């Protein structure tokens, strides 16, 4: 099981991790498909999780999700975690996981590694916390 902080962006369907849904945005239609964005976190980091179709209704804040064969990908220059076509997201519990909201992996600008263009490395921190789901003051 990978921790969110140790996952680097790459277009590979090989991310196996567990996290809690901290917050969830509104459901929107993208074409004919429902889509929504959530802030998810584990004990090492947070990231934006993109949900499609039935996933939008299946998961709520406080749900603990196990992701198998997920993928980190870019959508409009933002790094997102998602199940993808080959991945599987499944609720495995509620409310009983330690988590942090910083660093937010979706608020880091990533660039190809000069020594290996298939690997991405952090280039700059855009914001220490989610700009989509700001922390409660």
Automatic annotation (TrEMBL):
InterPro entries: NA-bd_OB-fold, SOSS-B. Coiled coil: none annotated. Gene3D superfamilies: Nucleic acid-binding proteins (2.40.50.140). It comes from the Eukaryota. GO terms for molecular function: DNA binding. One of its GO terms (biological process) is mitotic G2/M transition checkpoint. GO terms for cellular component: chromosome; SOSS complex. PANTHER family: OB FOLD NUCLEIC ACID BINDING PROTEIN-RELATED, SOSS COMPLEX SUBUNIT B HOMOLOG. This is SOSS complex subunit B homolog. The gene is LOC104243076.
